Amino acid sequence: MEKLVEEMKTHICDELCLHPRYAESQEELDRTCADCRLSKYVRRIMDTYNELNCFEKTQCAALMQKYSKLVLCNECEYSRMTESTGIWWCALAQGLDSDLIAGDGCSKGKRR
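The chain above was modelled as a monomer; its predicted structure follows.
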């Protein structure tokens, strides 16, 4: 994004801005450019972009935080398999009350 905004700013300054044509010296042009609103707009664009793309403020980060204590059954020390049937089940008293399938999990399990 920064590269794209910088390219836009360069194009505007070099191709569209009239000040370089009328400035009598480089110092005068530098003073004019220093007061240019375009730099302020570019900073606001980048600040907004960075704020919107801050991972800690995304819904994904909120969901990851909310579900960080979930343990998938295939990672849990309480999951057991019945040898004769090949069916997985939860050995925890307050665990899931059915056969386990891929993707099952709970907040009461312990990672192996």
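The longest strand covers residues 79-82.
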